[in-house]
Amino acid sequence: MKYISFYKHIVMILFIGMLYTAQEEINFYADSWALLIGINEYQFEKPLNYAVADAEEIQRLLVEKLGFPEQNIEILLDDNATLNGIK
Q: Which intervals hold domain Peptidase C14 caspase (predicted)?
C-alpha cells in the first residue's frame, strides 16, 4: 500500500511539472512571428488537396497551443501567395 501511495505522488509531481513546462512554452512564443503559405491550385502543376487546410490548421495550433499572437501570423493562400502578398 505504501508503494501505491508513493507512485501516486510521483505521478502527481510529474503531472504538475508537465503543466508548468507547457506554460513556459506558451510564454516563449509570445514574441514570435510566422508566415504560412498554402497553395492548392497551381498554374502548371496538378492541384493539391490539403495545402490550404494544413496552413489554416497550423495557424490554429500556433495560436491555441503555442501562444503565438494572432496578429503576428501572416497566412497566404492560393492566389494571395505572391511576392506582393508577402510585402
A: 33-73
Is the pLDDT at 26 greater than 60? The verdict is no
* Residue found by looking up cell 497566412 in the block: 75
Could you give the CA distance from residue 63 to residue 69 in angstroms, rounded to a whole number?
A: 6
CB 62 within 8 A of CB 73: yes
CB 54 within 8 A of CB 62: no
* pLDDT at res. 9: 59
- For residues 30 and 46, what is the distance between their CA atoms, to the nearest angstrom? 38
The radius of gyration of the chain from alpha carbons, rounded to an integer in Å, stands at 20
